[in-house]
Amino acid sequence: MRIIVYGSLRRKQGNSHWMTNAQWLGDHRIVGFDLYNLGHYPGVVEGEGSVYCEVYRIDASTLGELDALRTKNGEYKRQLIQTPYGSAWLYVYQRSVAGRTHIASGDWLRRDGETEA
Fold this sequence. Notes:
Distance between the termini: 34 Å
Protein name: Gamma-glutamylcyclotransferase
Radius of gyration: 13 Å
Number of helices: 1
InterPro entries: AIG2-like_dom (IPR009288), GGCT-like (IPR013024), GGCT-like_sf (IPR036568)
Shape: globular
Strand order of the largest sheet: 4-5-1-3-2-6-7
Order of helices and strands: EEEHEEEE
Largest sheet: 7 strands, mixed
Strand content: over 45%
Number of strands: 7
Oligomer: single chain
């Protein structure tokens, strides 16, 4: 199975250690989503923009660990989307982004161009 990551799970980011057993497949920009700064990590919601991501092949054990990390308290839910590498799971933020900072570049690593939502 595949997963698409856009923030702290990306290479050289704070939670990238969760991806140790994953196989990097490539980069991809998803369209129809917006990226928001939630503090120490981002959230993706359906929108009008695009978001820079990395696609990985993972095993069921890794997916279970990521679910425990991302879906606790209903903060995120998994959504299956299409990528050039096949369908992949994306964690979509489930809470309001009102008052959160929109990352206009769509790239968590280039969040200097943020604007208030």
